[in-house]
Amino acid sequence: MVIFRFGLLLATLLFMFVMPVQAKTLTIGITQFPHTLHPTIDSMAATSYIMGLARRPITAYDADWTLVCLLCTELPTLENGRAKVVEVPKDVGDGTGRGIAVTYTLPAEAAWGDGTPITTADVVFTWEVGRHPQVGISAAELYRRILDITVVDDKTFTLVMDRVGFTYNSIGDFGLLPAHIEGPAFAENPAAYRSRTAYDRAPETKGLWFGPYRVTEVSQGAQVVLERNPAWWGDAPAFDKIIVKAVENTAALEANLLAGGVDMIPGELGLAVDQVIAFEKRHGSRFAITYKPSLYYEHLEVPLDAPMFADVRVRRALLHAIDRQLIVDKLFGGKLTVATTKVSPLDWVHHDGLAPLPFDPAKARQLLDEAGWTPGPDGIRRNAEGQALAFPLQTTAGNRTRERVQQVLQAQWRDVGVDAQIRNEPARVLFGETLNKRRFTGAVMFAWISSPENVPRTTQHCEEIPTTANAWTGQNYGAYCDPAMDTLIDAIEVELDRDKRAALWLELQEKMAADVPDLPLFFRSEAYILPPWLKGLRPTGHLNPSTLWVETWSVDGR
After folding, report:
1. Which of 203, 282, 287, 389 has its CB surrounded by the most CB atoms within 10 Å?
2. Predicted TM-score of the model (pTM)
3. Which region among 1-15, 284-298, 400-414, 488-502 has the lowest average model confidence (pLDDT)?
4. Measured distance CA(178)–CA(350) in Å, rounded
């Protein structure tokens, strides 16, 4: 009897003191660790996901794909008068002499995590950093387009843009920086700012953050710990602490989930659909599993300034040699969509009249013959100089699904005389160095994540090729450059008429399909594995992660 009572008392104490602590912590498992926590230097999905917990963009697309204010009081429009067409010099923008002045007001109570008010001084400082040629911001194009900033007061400012684009009021890439913390490092040496930012040197600094949570601990390569931000002015989030763990091996990530090491795996940076389908069959009763079709464009980037890939016949041959529908059906249960170009069928501007290049090994061999690559004694093709048609095939190390796709690519390319050598790297190296600084010599498999109707300027315009001269600014890693494509991109951006813009989009997709600037694979679906007690999380299916609305997440029945 005494033993029974002691056991009951112990159980009661555990319930009272252990369970509440657990209920106040959410542990999220993702497959990448960010190369940097700076909000604008790199374009890694891992950085974006974590930033969603600790920061807010001025504008973002929500789960309904509607542009909304997250750090402004009202979205500027031509209709409400907060956006006005103005004259600008004709030697800037699209050369028409027409620009647009867009006025935003920051929330009155908005403050950095150390209590310092967020003001227009931070806006001006952010612009100075973003437009400086020696810093190398990934989305520098937005900062270059801002000709001037008029400060109305501490909370209201007007951006003068160099053209009237149809996305004139979308400034989600304007990643606000705290002037009172980052200012000294930038002023001392702009060229060295990337390596001296407090976001990497001292990420626990309270004043760097202004979301529902702030970063309190970083274990490099392993995890980021975030705790409630006392200076947050919005709705209170459900958890006292969120731990984001990076487990770059997807099999190990699944094991962590089953063992209770993590509570959830998000679709933005989690397991591929095939793994989640298999997981659901075994453990679906324990979790809430959701699939969300998305704008995640899985593809192969190749260096077009390398002679091997400069010939479009080689690029087309590589596509003809891949049975992409087989990959989708066998590896992903038919839940993905084979891509024709980087424009998704989910987007209203998609060209339904175009079809993906079909699986046709005979056509692939013919194109390679025409391009001067003929089979050698070992079956590998060589050109007239004896160079083998061989190159590295890279992706994020430890991603089991991508590694399986690699093996299919390797085998199918080998069948037409192409030797692809698998050489994978950790995500933070692949994205932070290999792609960013264009150090790859073969094909790199990864996904671009875009917003709805995203004009591919940063990935396909001649001005967006990262180089030493521009401090590795831009995301055109393959170095695709065609004046006709630039003209189309420029025209789409400034066309406000929806029907006329749709016609330009069709022309752009036809050119992409003809030029093959990269090798399209498929559009991914996001697969979320959530605990049944976590409510309110809405997948977006696009560039802006679900964490931007973490304050709407709740706990029910944990």
Report:
1. 389
2. 0.85
3. 1-15
4. 39
